[in-house]
Amino acid sequence: MKIKIVDYSKRMKREVRELFLKIYPGDLKIAKLMAFDEGRKDHVATKIAVVNGKFAGQANMFRFRNKRAVSNLGYHVLPRFRQKGIGSSLCSAVMKAAQTKGIKKVLIRTYPTNTASISLAKSLGFKQVKDEFKKRNIIAFKKEI
């Protein structure tokens, strides 16, 4: 299996939307929610994982609450490609790109039931923090980069 991490470009928009529909089958609402606008002023970086010529995952960062040096990291990998290092590779590539744009702190927010996301965050060196997200049944992790 050959994994390639590439920068997102607008010409990939349709393929990325299809990727989200495959990751979240039957849930058009969440697939649309996950489709993002890289033209937003708070966008930091987006990377795509390509395996054997097919999109396998995506990770992106947006500034958190418009703070200059704090960013939120999101990642999504097709189920059949999970546990193969793709999520870690995507997140590492996005964090490296974010450093060049002045990001110093990265947040990951997830549901307490998302054990795969929690495991990935911890494997990347993120530490769980207590914060206001707990009110919405979301847990958060942070890491200085």
Describe the protein in words:
It is a single chain. Helices cover 28% and strands 32% of the residues. With 145 residues, it is an alpha+beta fold. Helix 1 crosses helix 2 (28-34). The longest helix has 14 residues, at 86-99. The mean pLDDT is 89.
Keywords, please?
globular; alpha+beta; 4 helices; 145 residues; Aminopeptidase
Shape: globular
The number of helical elements comes to 4
CATH topology: Aminopeptidase
Helix-and-strand structural type: alpha+beta
The end-to-end span amounts to: 29 Å
Query: Strands across the major sheet, in which order?
Result: 1-2-3-4-5-7-6
DSSP strand tally: 7
Q: How many domains make up the 3D coordinates?
A: 1
Helix proportion range: 25-40%
Q: Given this structure, which CATH class is correct? A: Alpha Beta
Reading the helices and strands in chain order gives EHHEEEHEHEE
Please summarize the sheet with the most strands.
7 strands, mixed
CATH superfamily, called what? Answer: Gcn5-related N-acetyltransferase (GNAT)
Overall radius of gyration: 14 Å
Enumerate the spans where pLDDT stays under 50 for 5 or more consecutive residues: none
Second-tier CATH architecture = 3-Layer(aba) Sandwich
Strand content: 25-35%
| Average pLDDT | 89
